[in-house]
Design brief:
heterodimer, A: about 270 residues, mainly alpha, MetI-like fold, 2 domains, 11 helices, B: mainly alpha, globular
């Protein structure tokens, strides 16, 4: 198409980089230059103070990172268990009130999560579920499951019924069909939904603070007070970890999925 | 024969892993919020009448100021994100394959948590930030205070910037998912028939993208309307976002004011539900009139 020349493509890329990559680049510089002040456009000196802070406080940082990682993965698992069977029903059967029910089931991702979480908080305290990991996971799963649900319904729809029928004709029981045929085929959808649920859970601050009540350590909880501190390089270092960790996780997931598919001869 | 046949029982059983938590935790949670707004199940026994909390809130002008403010911030940031996201997604879609990988940088703000995005806005836009330094080097300002006070203007500009930065890639993601399935030949035909670039975008591409635009707008609008994380980092004192108002009533005042916090949450919930219903109704009606053409 003639009206989209090379220059306009380059402009698009420059806009994207300025909007979305420059902030990450600036974060790297802030983390390496704690003394970077107005009106310097380039830091006068670099130092590794921010990185040293990381090393000195590695126990606190690692434990809150592990906690965040742990409850986020548990949230992914919880949403998966909640959504698997219902998603197969939604993809395969028609019943009265299905569109209405689907709409209702998607609302928790839309309405402000505060509105149900703060109501639950009091009861969670009474039941001593508040201030525990299970309380945090339940709350996070409750407003992030729609992403898993949508992904799984789409996954079941793409898969269709043919594999299932074929396996049944070959004499497979329903457990074998699920574990050996459907779940492997569904993995891309599980990973797609799981990535979103993981990110939502991993980056949430308020609900973890509310339901964890300070007992459940979290990475966002560690980061929050540093954001307004005078030393910005600490917050920048932690934010960069926030950026890298999910990317590493996603790459590992994709690679292991590819390996699994190759092993099973599905590629 | 009972009215529940075997198929229905199986259906209910298969749906139960989702329906049970939905009913108990989500519906139950909302129910408890409504109850506590009326003074039932509150930590302290409620002395007044059931609707006292609503009376207090609705007679407080600062509530309406907060409500309007939240609405404004949410509306501007969601509309901005959807417009910018659609435009950028369209441009990225047209990139040649060689450059398409470089465009993946747009996913960076998707991964960053909201509080980190707020931090990025702080670094760039504060009066001692990167942009102020840049303005100084360019000779536009001589001292810090001459740089526009973007973050504390009273207009919520900082929050709007943060929500837009976080929301634009989200809208891009949804729009891109539809564009992948879009047939390029439609555009080529239109171009051959002499349609301009703008005409192609608005009459051919846009209607196809409508579902993604609507869902990203609803999601982003309601999120910015009720979320806590970004306002907690960037909010100005007055008028605050509703979520901050609720937080203060819940954690910083005595327990007797718990029903007020819950009443605000109930109003927010009702607003969100009414907004979803009204929006989808209007969209279906509009689409029906378009189809008749």
């Amino acid at each position: 198409m003639k009206h989209f020349s090379g220059i306009s493509h380059i402009t698009t890329l420059i806009i994207l980089v300025l909007l979305f990559a420059l902030p990450a680049g600036i974060l790297v510089m802030v983390s390496l230059a704690p003394e970077w002040r107005y009106p310097e456009i380039w830091p006068a000196q670099f130092s590794f103070k921010g990185i040293w802070f990381l090393v000195e406080n590695k126990r606190v940082i690692l434990s809150s990172l592990a906690a965040s990682f742990g409850f986020s993965l548990l949230t992914v698992l919880a949403t998966l268990l909640m959504c698997l069977a219902p998603a197969s029903v939604f993809a395969r059967t028609c019943f009265i009130g299905k569109p209405l029910l689907e709409g209702l089931l998607l609302t928790p991702a839309l309405v402000p999560p505060m509105t149900f979480a703060m109501g639950l908080h009091f009861v969670f305290i009474k039941l001593s579920v508040a201030d525990t990991v299970s309380g945090v996971v339940l709350t996070l799963a409750m407003f992030s499951y729609p992403y898993m649900f949508r992904a799984l319904v789409a996954g079941f729809q793409t898969m269709g019924d043919t594999y299932r029928t074929c396996a049944k004709n070959l004499g497979a029981g329903s457990a074998a069909i699920f574990w050996q045929v459907e779940l492997p085929l569904l993995m891309p959808a599980v990973i797609a939904g799981g990535n979103v649920v993981f990110l939502v859970a991993f980056s949430e601050y308020f609900l973890v603070f509310l339901m964890g009540g300070g007992n459940v350590a979290s990475f966002t909880g560690l980061l929050m007070p540093l954001l307004s501190s005078s030393n910005r390089s600490l917050a920048a270092v932690l934010t960069l970890i926030f950026l890298l960790l999910p990317i590493v996780l996603f790459v590992i997931m994709d690679l292991s999925l590819m390996r699994m598919y190759r092993k099973k001869g599905m590629v | 024969m009972s009215w529940i046949n075997k198929g229905t029982t199986g259906l209910i059983l298969k749906l139960s892993p989702l329906m049970l938590p939905y009913l108990v935790l989500f519906c139950g949670g909302v129910f408890l919020t409504v109850c506590q707004s009326a003074g039932i199940f509150t930590p302290l026994p409620h002395a007044g009448r059931a609707l006292d909390a609503y009376g207090l809130i609705l007679s407080d002008p600062s509530f309406f100021a907060s409500f309007g403010f939240s609405l404004g911030v949410a509306l501007i940031s969601a509309a901005g994100s959807v417009i910018a996201g659609t435009f950028l997604a369209y441009r990225v879609w047209q990139l040649p394959a060689k450059l398409a990988n470089a465009a993946l940088v747009y996913k960076i703000p998707l991964i960053l948590p909201h509080i980190s995005v707020a931090f990025v806005v702080l670094i760039f836009w504060s009066q001692s930030g990167i942009l102020a330094s840049l303005a100084h080097q360019l000779g536009l300002i001589q001292a810090m205070h001459q740089f526009p006070n973007v973050l504390y203007s009273g207009w919520g500009l900082g929050m709007i910037l943060a929500y837009t930065l976080k929301g634009t890639p989200f809208a891009m993601l949804l729009v891109m998912a539809l564009l992948v399935r879009f047939d390029v030949r439609q555009i080529q035909t239109a171009a051959m028939l002499g349609a301009s670039g703008l005409r192609i975008f608005f009459t051919i591409v846009m209607p196809r993208l409508a579902p993604a635009l609507h869902s990203s707008f609803i999601i982003l609008f309601l999120y910015s309307f009720g979320a806590f994380d970004i306002p907690f980092v960037l909010s100005e004192s007055r008028p605050g976002m509703l979520s901050i108002h609720v937080y203060n009533l819940y954690f910083k005042h005595d327990l007797a004011r718990r029903p007020e916090a819950m009443a605000i949450l109930t109003i927010m919930f009702c607003f969100a539900v009414i907004f979803i219903i009204a929006y989808t109704k209007i969209v279906t009606r509009l689409e029906n009139t378009v189809r008749k053409l």
